[in-house]
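call fold target=Phenylalanine--tRNA ligase beta subunit
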Amino acid sequence: MKLSYKWLSKYLELDLEPKDLAEKIERTAVEVDSVTRLDYKLKKIVVGHTLEVTEHPDSDHLHICQVDVGEEEPIQIVCGAPNIAADQDVIVALHGSRIKDNVKIKRSKMRGVPSNGMICALQEIGYPDNVVPKDYADGIYVFPADSHVKPGDSVMEALGMDDDVIDTSVTPNRGDMFSMNGNAHEIAAILDQKANFEVLKVQDEQKSADTLADQIKVEIDEQDVAPVYKLMAIENVKIAPSPFWLQTTLMKAGIRPINNVVDVTNYIMLKYGQPLHAYDLDQLKGQTISVAPAGENVKFTTLDDEKRDLRPEDLVITADGTPIAMAGVMGGMATEVSDQTQNIVIEAAIFDPIKIRKTARYHNLHSEAAMRFERGIDYSSLDDALNEAASLVADFSQGKVMSGVVVGNDTKLNPESITIALARINKILGTSLTSEEVVAIFDRLGFSTELDATKQTFKVTVPVRRWDIHIEADLLEEVARIFGYDNLPVTLPTGDPTIGQLTTEQKLMRASRTVMEGLGLTQAMSYGLTTIAKSQQFVKGDHELVKVDWPMTKDREALRMNLISGLLDDIAYNKARSVENVALYEQGRVFYGNGQAQPEEIEHIAGAITGSMQAKSWNEKEKPVTFFDVKGIVEQYLKNVAVAGEVSYVADHDRQGMHPGRTADVLLDGDVIGFIGQIHPTTAEEFKIKETYVFELNLTKIIHAEKKLQHYDVISKYPAITRDIAILVNKEVSNTEVLNVINETKQKNLIKVELFDVYEGKNLEKGMKSLAYQFTYQDTNDTLQEDAINDEFSKVIKNLEEKLNVTVR
């Protein structure tokens, strides 16, 4: 909420700088986003009075203005605003002045005519578009007669731009600080003062003989939807602009002035935190007002002229069954206050906060009123707010307040009473406060206290305006923050310390990141929420999707079931910025629905590579990534984490989003723990990326898999011997099958087998291919003998011939 320092000064004796006050608020109550002044860096901007306005001889839209700016002689300014006219009080930026964005204004000529300054719109001196009155949205600002400005007066002072505005970030539990009333009481407690908060009542001379209950009635069947609902009416009003002081107050708070009725409702909302809504009474006469869920197939046009399809559970206010407002969110066009309105009715209510929040979220209508209803309303100030609003409207519109208040519901809340012991306060806070000091703190907060001197306990009665306090812990927090967090004694922890260490799972996850980065991949972090389509990509099996009931956007409406889609988004982001070579990995959780409130969370690790992993240099070209590069990364990773089981790869032709001929499942002892392969060209086209290879592994399964006992092997000091062999084999036989046969053969000294050539083509029988392997033999204890190597090598050849029907070339 935007707090005006000058407005606060009406209720409190503020003798400290605004920034110091903001620091006290932040240390004690809620976070402060900023302390700003609208006149920051503005200079030499004064009120001017237009004496004469004539057409520019060489332009169809420029005007030559003679302006009195409080100097001995008027100055001439050329202005192109469509609403410029003689006898107006306007904003003038003099020669040498500074306006918004530190722009300097100088004397100049406009189409040959000298101009000694600039007549400004509100936007040009720093006001945002959304707070400028609509009459001046496309032109210069004209001071109204009740501003009582004179030529030469400072514009910043006239508009209240010299006021410091403290912008607070109100937490959900402190809805009371969404009002000047709540802030005045809170800051009074911080500064140890009493808030001088004034309340206006309807005066006798403002009352009418007519009774509102004769015009309309209210019937509310379900008390929970609107625990409090009251109406007051003002007749014979004249709709006009609101007083100048009220307009400037609203603009500083970020609200656009509309008219003398709507502005009062907004002012009361800022003052009391009580949203109000004004209806045209003539549209409601003889009807019954009610509050209830909308029901099926209800369409409604809101004040922003948007036609909305309401959900059955959305709360609406109806007149004889016809919707006239979305309760607590926005009114309707049919009953809005217009220039022709003569009689109005003002609604003050408290609605179910949960229903209001859901309606506002669904329809994306986060109005000032909805924000307050969501966080709660002060039951104790509603009557004051409604009466003051009626009094101000009557005063500003020359109307009369009709007798009586029409009540639909009037639930009363009793103040909370909580008992707490002095010993408990001192034990939890580590203080040595006396009972007198604690009573003084509660008194500053406006809480009444009954002290049991014998038991040293306090019975604390909390006023209704602090509806966030219910239990002992809430009182402890109040004592701590008013006493001052900085004043709490500093103590060291007691007890035997324990040595912190990572769990086995945490160690392996950290090791995983180290391995991936060592293999040339860069860590990425993606959102856990994504679209429904992306969440289900690359997933096999019957996994239940977890959708968000109230997603922030359509791009974040489901929990992810894979990591790859997020990595592809990252690659697309880089590709759009001409980064062609990208190698990323991510370690994180995926989520599977299980029919329970808490979805199943599984740790995964995934990678995505496009382009080349090897940078181009003077002696080497870029090498595009292939399936085998990604397979090598996965193999090296599984080797480094030392899984003890047998790792194998099986072709996978039906995984959604993957190339059917270049994808394989990764198996550990026959159990699928992930997959590797190329993204399908159509999927790559959807993401607007080039050929990309990916892998994704179930890290949870890897963590819980049996591990090899890792140790160092002695490096042999004896030479190694190699043997090469080329075999002719059926085209359907894979390298893995050949290696399996070799590894199954009993070998004492074979330490490495490497495939170094694959050939298919001329001079080979149809359906055959040639594979060339190099065998490396070495003994750590002795020099190898030729006969021993020949014997082992012969056994391998024999097994290959018998089991795979190979032919040695």
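return ok
The first strand starts at residue 2 and ends at 4. DSSP finds 20 helices and 39 strands in the chain.
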